[in-house]
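Obj.: predict assembly geometry.
Materials: sequence records (below).
Method: joint structure prediction, all chains together.
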Amino acid sequence: MVSVYVKGLILGCLLMTSSMAVLWMLDQQRITILNNDLRELAWQSDDSRLFIDYAEEVGQVNSTLKCKLIEKRVGQQVRIIEGLGEKIEAYRNANVFNSEYFSLKKNFLYRAIEVHLNLIKYKRECNGSVNHVVYYYVEYDQDQTQCPDCSLQEAALNILGKDCPNTWVFAYPVNTDIDLINLMKEEHDITNAPATVINGEHIHKGFADLETLKSKLECGENLFEPEENTTEEVN
Amino acid sequence: MRWRTLIGITAFALFVFGCISIFSLFNPYWIFTISSAVYITQACIFLFAFEESKIDDPKPKNYPSLTIMVPAYNASKTILKSLEHVKALKYPKPFDIVVIEDGSKDDTYEKIKNIPGIRIIRNKKNKGKAESLNQAIKILKTDLIANIDSDTYPEPETLKNMVGYFNDPKVGAVTTLIVPENPKGFLRRIQEFEYYVAFGFWHKSISTLDSLYVTPGPMSIYRTDALRDVGGFEKGNITEDLEIALALQEKRWKIKCSVNSKVKTEIPGDIIGYIKQRTRWYRGKFYNTIKYKHLLFRREYGHFGMFVFPGTLIVEILAMIVFIGFLTVNFKRFLIEANNYFRLISLGLIRWEFILQFDPLTIPPYLIFLVATLLIWGYLLYKSLKFDKRKVKIYEIPYICFYLIFYSIFITTAYAIGFFNELRGSERKW
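Observations (raw structure tokens):
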């Protein structure tokens, strides 16, 4: 009769191991997806930075062409970064085995700042009709005790992004050790979340409803939509 | 408020606090992992025990003398049908039928008083099932005593299938497959699947390990000597069928299970009746576990003392910890989310395009363990239905899904209420 226990234990272990293996595979898949997105973003960032540096330092490129190329590069970046922050959060909540999320999130924030700065540069130098909204939230606040209005603000900003496709929201945590974010917070005198800064000018502390947000910016078309391929293959 | 009540409530509050603390201190995923490992391993062990069991019942070497006791209290609606089935039982020898009419307030006695071939013991005052049965045990002289509830309807072959186990002189009791009578309605249909697993698969596999710890009230047969050896049923015990089985285990009597014939019994179809019945069962289980705690982890009680009795206790405690911990932690989150949704709706910030966005990679990890547990339980259910050749109809699939996924919530709620009632020392009643 002992064999009943041994067999049961083996089958139980097999089932548990299979479940753990599925969990591990899901974890790996999530991390791979995020790493790929972040790697792609890093390449795009490097490409943009080098191009802008070249255009500024050598100045051989005329301004119209320069803006077209900046627009193309920023467009590629914003398409990758769109929803990536939320995806990292969602994947971190589903994660069991991986401990990479802290560094992934930090990496993402650096990339987001870079895209943000490129967007500002594009708006300034090329008169691009784009809006950039900085949203400050509290990280690691599962119970929403530190920022009960953050989820409302996120919903409002998501809708804003859909209704105004020329608006890009950059979400930064208020509780971070990234110096640049802390500097931005100081400049805009932000101490609590939620807080929003629209186009670097309009600061709103506390929850800002959709109407308030929309009143502070000009809604327009998304300039960064990928152009449809109109070329035909000719034999 | 009595001191006992106060102490009980405090103890329960501390238990709940402990459950919440466990969920706060440790990652809930790991708590799920550990509890799933325990459930799954226990189910796998019972599965292999079931595979090793012999479904065919042993042929009786001889047919012992037998008396059927039918305790009846306010059984006016069911007693006639029950006695009809009892009288139709096939047995090569004549057997006695004794109805213990336990001071019913309805017309139970009037209905049975003129039925030929039955003996009636009538109590002027209600004494309870255990005492009624003890009354009969004192005067009966047959080798075996079968207890059949007055709302239970056995199949004709039941006795013949069960008595073969008494060839072994160490067998003190034999149980059988119990299924609900007329399983119509949501709750009854779900309970039907539960009964197949519990009284069929579970009891058969546990009896293979000689560790069955309940002789179900609807129908069980006892060796008269075994009943007398343990001093009969405990007066006032709200789960006397559990207590008598533990007493038999204590005295090293074997309890066997036959699954080749069915006994149908009336079951509650409304949620109040269901919770009341289950609360009584689990409260009784808690009480009897404490009474027989000296059997836990005792090598001399074999599989029962070392695995089945402590194993079921551990599983039940774990289930309560997981249930209460998960419920309280998620209830808080649920309130937050509900509040968020309410505010989002009031601010017009709900858009279906966001709600319908779903990334399968964001599924919670505990769902994986749930799937593993469902796989094994689904297989147990399949095995349970298979030996009765019970076919599943398409419209029954939602009931099966509900049984497999959500039914444990009902059970654990009833267990927690029973546990609470026992701690606070409220009156034990049927």
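Conclusions so far: Chain A has seven helices and four strands.
To do: check interface contacts against the pulldown list.
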